[in-house]
Amino acid sequence: MYAYIEEYASFLKNVRRKSLNTVESYKRDINQYITYLNKCGVNEISDSVRTNVLAYLLEMKNMGKASSTVSRTLASLRSFYMFLVQNGVMENDPTANLEAPKVEKKPPRILTGAQVELLMEQPSDTDNKGIRDRAMLELLYATGIRVSELINLNIGDVNLFMGFIHCAGDRKERIIPIGNKAIDALGRYIDKTRPYMIRRGDEKALFVNCSGERLSRQGFWKIVKHYQHTAGITTEITPHTLRHSFAAHLLENGADLHSIQEMMGHADISSTQVYSNLINKKIKAVYLKAHPRA
What we know:
Elements: H1 2-14, H2 20-39, H3 50-62, H4 67-86, H5 113-120, H6 128-143, H7 147-151, E1 158-159, E2 164-168, E3 173-177, H8 180-197, H9 217-231, H10 239-252, H11 257-264, H12 269-290
Helix pairs in contact: 1-2, 2-4, 3-4, 6-8, 6-10, 10-12, 11-12
């Protein structure tokens, strides 16, 4: 069964052009499902049926897994079974017409302007790691790119003179402007720090770890959590928090939704409207608190 997973992963990567993180996420979900099937005595994927899928999803729910996790797993299994049917491994798709559990969408977590400033002040200006970290945080907040896009940036994707970066995400390529603070932080890192951190002169990665190799997603996540701790910020911060804050702060200062959609790489404007709804709720809360006749 595991051989089919590798074939499917190759299909996602080479045909569907999915990112490595997305492929690994699909593989992880499917491997866990296959382990469950083996425990149930189903040793061939072609022998699995609708009941197996339903029982697995129910077990996940009984284990306390979040609805979002169950829903994502079903999406992974549905895509995998579709691949198997298309390649003649199975005649029928056991996931056909199965409904995913309703996922309660939580509003995005947004930092205040003061919290952003405090976070940006944490990296040291006196050592290579601190200069690199400040450049990454400034760039992430300045552009709203995803963490996967940040770590996949190459040195050639940055144009400090014109003030933009070229971002080739999963969905579409885009050119994103960057402000003066990000330009200054990036310029210092590229000119004074990166040459001493890279291991090879032909290294393409913009941001590298202390071993001189491209920084990983997990590595950057640890960096963000470290500076949250040193700043004493109690609000939970992840790399995506800075992406959300980028969008919300632009809206608060008058940017239009379509421009933000373009910069963030959202395929649908509804994804960007989440931030507009958030700002509207904030304005209403201020009104109800401040207006004498509210």
